[in-house]
Design a protein that fits this description.
single chain, alpha+beta, L-fuculose-1-phosphate Aldolase, 8-stranded mixed β-sheet, 7 helices, 8 strands
Length: about 220
């Protein structure tokens, strides 16, 4: 299991900064999307529900235990808290979760098409194709359980008719992964207009496949 290398205040600072970058980079609009991170004491810090990222402060963040009980903060945690907590409960090597509505990634999500691993860096940093989790209603326990099953061996999953979820070692890592997935989705979308996609050679996949698992455990 990878260890948490930052203090609780450092994690909260990074989560808030990442949330502001998430909207500044166009990965979400308004108050959509959400972020979470595991704290050294085992609790989880989450973005609050229905609050503008631009004006969000550290005092607005919410800390819960892994069962969703609020232990710090005066606001309500994101309505997608079950989604985050299910991923963190099920996978001890995940320390942060980001859900966003990146445009090209969401195009694949609403057409129920996986984003294929046709670029080497996707294999290395994501772990393979970005699959599409089965549709479940937003904010539901069913969605949380469905999506959390898909991130056991990769860093990203599309939520059918919804958006993108990435998992990583900290919030900044989740943002980098979301940027990679979104860039790949845009490249694949454009490449399809030029002709059929060409898969990576099997020898390349075998070479890079173990790297993600090693990186995830570090």
């Amino acid at each position: 299991m990878a260890s948490i290398k930052m203090t609780a205040p450092e994690i909260k600072d990074q989560l808030l900064a990442t949330a502001k970058k998430m909207i500044a980079q166009g990965l979400v609009e308004g108050t959509s999307g959400n972020l979470s991170a595991r704290l050294p004491d085992g609790n989880v810090v989450l973005t609050p529900s229905s609050l503008a990222y631009e004006t969000m402060t550290l005092d607005d963040l919410v800390v819960t235990d892994l069962d969703g009980n609020v232990v710090e903060g005066t606001r309500s945690a994101t309505t997608e808290k079950d989604l985050h907590l299910a991923c963190l409960r099920k996978h001890q090597d995940i320390h942060a979760v980001m859900h966003c509505h990146a445009m090209y990634s969401t195009m694949f999500a609403i057409t129920h098409q996986p984003i294929p691993c046709v670029i080497e860096e996707v294999d290395v940093f994501i772990g393979g194709d970005i699959p599409v989790a089965n549709y479940k209603v937003t904010g539901s326990v069913e969605l949380a359980e469905e999506v959390s099953e898909w991130v056991g061996d990769r860093a990203a999953v599309l939520m059918a008719n919804h958006g993108l979820l990435t998992v990583g070692k900290d919030p900044a890592d989740c943002l980098k992964l979301a940027q990679l997935v979104e860039r790949t989705a845009q490249i694949v979308w454009g490449a399809k207009s030029l002709g059929p996609l060409i898969e990576l050679p099997e020898s390349t996949k075998k070479k890079f496949a173990p790297i993600y698992k090693i990186m995830r455990s570090m």
